[in-house]
Design a protein that fits this description.
Elements (H helix, E strand, L loop, with lengths): L10 H18 L2 H14 L4 H11 L2 H12 L4 H11 L2 H9 L8 H10 L2 H13 L3 H30 L8 H16 L3 H16 L7 H26 L1
Helix pairs in contact: 1-8, 1-9, 2-4, 2-9, 2-10, 3-9, 4-5, 4-10, 5-12, 6-8, 8-9, 11-12
């Protein structure tokens, strides 16, 4: 069985890797400013460069990192930080289910590595070609090449942000840059009615409950947004079927 440390470098694997890398390369440009902002925001929120880089490697999720930074800076309890990270990353449950069938032939450690490398952009550009191609080695190459490139690029750009964060004036308020980065991610996603309902519901509840201790208002807003978006999607599906 192939694993991440013993890749099947067959012609099919290499062909899939080339196709996946070419498809993802234009999308990966967006990781450059996103990673730099995340690195600067981590240091600006009080993490040391070593802690920031460690978080970047272990978590490897810009939304989870930026979403939890205000809680870390406020000294929130660990359970709340973990719950927030899980809430903002629930979409990866759906992503994983969509691609799981392509890697059932791999051993558990390889599947864990594939899950760790999963990011939005790679899923968006690779899922349909992987579902159309029946060669398991082509599918593995098509997924791994852009995923590894995304990981390397993210770590490098975050490191740039971490290194140059101390040279940035404190008056620039790097913590607020995390909020801006999250808004940039949110706006394109709010193009459909369920996503728009989720954003408006979550934002309204978070603002209304802003005074709760431990920033629980933000967690309540996430839960309300998920429920609101789910209800809107169900209603939209029912209207289409009728």
């Amino acid at each position: 069985m192939p694993s991440l440390n013993r890749l099947p470098l067959t012609p099919a694997f290499r062909a899939g890797a080339r196709a996946g890398f070419r498809a993802f390369l234009p999308v990966s440009i967006g990781l450059i400013p996103w990673g730099i902002v995340t690195g600067m925001a981590m240091v600006g929120s009080g993490l040391t460069p070593l802690q920031a880089m460690g978080m970047n490697v272990i978590v490897f999720s810009g939304t989870a990192q930026l979403g939890t930074l205000p809680l870390i800076a406020a000294g929130a309890p660990l359970w709340l930080i973990l719950a927030t990270a899980l809430a903002v990353n629930l979409r990866f449950v759906i992503f994983s289910a969509a691609i799981a069938g392509n890697f059932q032939h791999l051993r558990a450690p390889a599947r864990w590595g594939i899950g760790y490398l999963l990011v939005d952009g790679v899923f968006a550009v690779c899922v349909e070609p992987m579902l159309r191609n029946e060669n398991p080695q082509w599918r593995l190459g098509h997924y791994l090449a852009p995923s590894l490139w995304a990981w390397i690029l993210w770590q490098f750009c975050a490191l740039i942000g971490i290194v140059f964060a101390d040279a940035t004036p404190q008056s620039w308020s790097l913590e607020f840059m995390a909020t801006i980065a999250l808004l940039v991610l949110l706006l394109p996603m709010a193009s459909t009615r369920p996503m728009l309902v989720a954003a408006l519901t979550g934002g309204a509840v978070a603002v209304a409950l802003h005074g709760l201790p431990l920033r629980l208002g933000m967690l309540a807003g996430m839960v309300a947004g998920i429920l609101g978006g789910f209800a809107a999607e169900r209603r939209q599906s029912a209207a289409v079927e009728s």
